[in-house]
Amino acid sequence: MEKRSWAEPYKIKMVELLKMTTREQREAAIAAAGYNTFLLKSEDVYIDLLTDSGVGAMSDRQWAGMMMGDEAYAGSRNFYHLRDTVETYYGYKYTVPTHQGRGAENILSQILIKPGDYVPGNMYFTTTRLHQELAGGVFVDVIVDEAHDPASTHPFKGDVDFNKLNALLDEAGADKIPYVCIATCVNMAGGQPISLENLRELRTWCDQHDILLVHDMTRVAENAYFIQQRETGYQDRSVREIVHEICSLTDAATMSSKKDAMVNIGGFLAMNDEGLYEKACELVVVYEGLHTYGGMAGRDMEALAIGITESVQDDHIHARIGQVAYLGESLEAEGVSVVKPYGGHAIFLDARAIVPHLPQEQFPAQALAAALYVDAGIRAMERGAVSAGRNRQTGENHMPKLELVRLTIPRRVYTQAHMDVTAESVVEVMKNAASVKGLRFTYEPGVLRFFQGRFEEIE
């Protein structure tokens, strides 16, 4: 049958007007921002693909829920709604709200990690690794090799390589591995999923060695969609069912609700162990707030509970990932090098291939992101050497194999026409890639330097 077009499963109810700028204005803006797209003013951005975190469009039901906020300091009814929703859709018995995902990472790391511990995971994430290091741990990458190859079409690049995991076990011993940290739809690999087959095998491995399995579930619904589409035996299962099965294989989870659950702020730490929950409640009071609101207002907990129910609807996730794929297909049709298969939340440009004249020491992904902004007012972000930071022991730059620019699609925000404009801009920049100049730091923060670092062009 002939392929049919599809449309988003929602209609637009309110619009936010955008400011149009000239190229000269954008050149001045990016220079003033130190060639760091994080330091641009939002009002100077036309299409904002910096992140999908906290920038999705909430539904009418979520906005209505905001008016049901119970802002009591203790025992907010919105907390109990959130707690029950987490248990219903994800299966975790205990929930501790936090202001966002990194609040949950901080609490978990302080509870579980001792100095000298090793934390294996399927590729690092910036804030996760930092909290692990601040607690005295060392992150160890145990993802499959295909994840480091942007051209590989491996369907589950988020899978764990058990040879790497066992090598760490032999070297460090189980008592030095407090938990395995597994992300669904691995961000730094290009939004790549882990398979249920691999996750079940990992669950067995953790049980054999009495090691906890912790889930970074920020994009678990997107991962469930890829399992539904790619893994044998799951084509007739709903995204909601697959999400629940993924979570059932893990002991605890950190969640940045600003992604999948489509809220502007919020996160949580969830688990099944009562002792771990009690320790988390003790620390959340120190860093976030009382255990029945953490770092969230009651109205935000209500919007989050509703967002969770919407995030696992098949029609929603099909349209969400379909828009990402539309951009990827548009770019590939023009010969643009992108990470394959397409991720769930973003298309990742291969900066090494697009600006090959720039050595990694001159931060080609950072330079490419700046060039995209100058061309059409599109704000993307770097995911390469700048994001990787420095080795905390030696001070040397980490030089990852992946040097990427992330075009991150907010949920329910932009139309296909915005994707067309984005694709056209990327193609234009690629045609003039030889004019893109390398960058060097003029200000480099000690941690998470990609947020606030500043650069200048190398003439």
Itemize the secondary structure elements and their pairings.
Elements: H1 23-32, E1 47-48, H2 60-66, H3 77-90, E2 94-98, H4 101-112, E3 118-121, H5 126-134, E4 138-141, H6 162-172, E5 179-183, H7 196-209, E6 212-216, H8 220-230, H9 239-248, E7 252-256, E8 267-271, H10 274-287, H11 298-311, H12 314-332, E9 346-350, H13 351-354, H14 364-376, E10 378-379, E11 381-383, H15 385-388, E12 404-408, H16 416-431, E13 439-443, H17 449-452, E14 454-457
Parallel strand pairs: 1-10, 3-4, 5-6, 6-7
Antiparallel strand pairs: 2-8, 7-8, 9-12, 11-12, 13-14
Summarize the structure.
By secondary structure, the chain is an alpha/beta fold. 41% of the residues lie in helices and 13% in strands.
Short key terms for the protein model shown above:
single chain; 459 residues; alpha/beta; Aspartate Aminotransferase, domain 1; 5-stranded mixed β-sheet; 3-stranded antiparallel β-sheet; 17 helices; 13% strand; globular
